[in-house]
Amino acid sequence: MPVSICVKSGVRAEMIDITGPVREMVRQAGAKDGLCFVYVPHTTAGVTINEGADPDVCKDILDRLEFLVPRNAGYRHAEGNADSHIKASLMGSSVTVLVEKGSLVLGTWQKIFLCEFDGPRTRKVFVAFR
Ligand code: ZN
Question: What is the DSSP code string of 42-107?
Fold first, then answer.
């Protein structure tokens, strides 16, 4: 069974840096060399890896997603959050990161982000090692 963390979002759409908690789980698991899988079991939230140095990058991603997939655009889905489902699929539900000598192998500017598209709510993120 994979371990998981809970992440609380504060607004409807945001990207939350979860690199620190994932790194800590890798450390606690005693993972050495292998793969770290980060998986979000939700249909209106996703996960992605992108730049974490300049917060404007995440703002630009969220703004562009909103432009491409506006909240109200005559969708069929009766729950009223069709845009959230579409954005979650665009981001994807998992990422894989190499683990080398117990550390996540990320580029200098890369961070792992939970992508919330129907918040605020509490999300679960599974992390597994192989
Ligand atoms: Zn829905």
Answer: -SSEEEEEEE-S-HHHHHHHHHHHHHHS-S-S--S-TTS-HHHHHHHHHH-SEEEEEEETTEE---
Give the domain extent around 27. 3-129
pLDDT at 1: 59
- Tell me the CA–centroid distance for residue 43 and ligand 1, in Å: 8
CB within 5 A of ion ligand 1: which residues? Answer: 79, 81
* 65, pLDDT greater than 80: yes
Q: Find the 67 Cα to ligand 1 centroid distance in Å.
A: 19
Pair of tokens at residue 61: 């991603």
Q: What pTM, to 2 d.p., does this model score?
A: 0.96
Q: What CATH number is given to the structural domain containing 10?
A: 2.60.120.460
- Going from the Cα of 73 to the center of ligand 1, the distance in angstroms, rounded, reads 14
Domain count, the chain: 1
Cβ pair 15, 115 in contact under 8 A: yes
